[in-house]
């Protein structure tokens, strides 16, 4: 097994995609199209990486795998990520659903497309972080942070009875 922090790469890759969308400039129609394609490609790469770690996952042990641990804030609070059998399935499920979410909104979202795609990519990062976090504070940060893009998605692009 390599020492590549594959779980952190999977977790934070959508943030890179969101940053690329944030930096895209130009006429609104072109920026919207760029945002759609960057979000779709990012989520597909995310899915491929998730399937890769699923293929390298040893299902015969109950131990956490792909663990990454480092000191973070002191007081025993650290950056500790890893997956077991259940969380591995949720990581793959999340990564598998996101390309379909992007495709489902391809034509239906016409306003603030770049912001919508950024919110979805940030939501993906935070959801995968929830399933991979092994530190309670890190889990809390990912879990509560996930409410922000979800609130924006529902509040800005929701139906007529939105926030």
What would you say this structure looks like, in words?
With 163 residues, the protein is mostly helical. It has one domain. It is 66% helix and 10% strand. The chain is built from 5 helices and 2 strands; from the N terminus they run ααββααα. The protein has a two-stranded antiparallel sheet with strand order 1-2. A hairpin with a 2-residue loop joins β1 (65-74) and β2. α3 (85-104) packs antiparallel against α4. The longest helix has 28 residues, at 28-55. It is globular, with a radius of gyration of 17 Å. It starts with 5 loop residues before the first helix and ends in a 6-residue tail after the last helix. The relative contact order is 0.16. The mean pLDDT is 91.
Which features does this protein show?
163 residues; mainly alpha; two-stranded antiparallel ribbon; 5 helices; 2 strands; 66% helix; 10% strand; globular
**Spatial order of strands in the largest sheet:** 1-2
Oligomer: single chain
Order of helices and strands: HHEEHHH
Distance between the termini: 47 Å
Uncertain segments are none
Radius of gyration: 17 Å
Strand content: 5-15%
Q: What would you call the shape?
A: globular
Compute the average pLDDT. Answer: 91
Q: How large is the count of helical segments?
A: 5
> Largest beta sheet, briefly?
2 strands, antiparallel
In helices, the fraction of residues equals 55-70%
Number of domains: 1
Q: State the total count of DSSP E strands.
A: 2
């Amino acid at each position: 097994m390599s020492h590549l922090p594959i779980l952190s790469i999977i977790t934070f890759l959508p943030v890179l995609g969101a940053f690329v969308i944030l930096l895209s400039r130009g006429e609104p129609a072109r920026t919207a199209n760029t945002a759609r394609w960057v979000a779709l490609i990012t989520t597909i790469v995310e899915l491929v990486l998730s399937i890769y770690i699923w293929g390298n996952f040893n299902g015969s042990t109950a131990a956490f795998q792909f663990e990454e641990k480092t000191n973070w804030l002191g007081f025993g609070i650290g950056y500790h990520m890893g997956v077991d059998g259940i969380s591995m399935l949720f990581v793959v499920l999340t990564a598998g659903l996101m390309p379909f979410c992007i495709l489902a909104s391809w034509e239906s979202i016409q306003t603030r497309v770049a912001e919508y795609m950024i919110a979805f990519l940030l939501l993906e990062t935070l959801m995968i972080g929830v399933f991979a976090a092994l530190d309670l504070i890190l889990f809390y940060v990912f879990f509560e942070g996930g409410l922000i893009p979800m609130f924006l998605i529902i509040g800005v692009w929701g139906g007529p009875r939105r926030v």
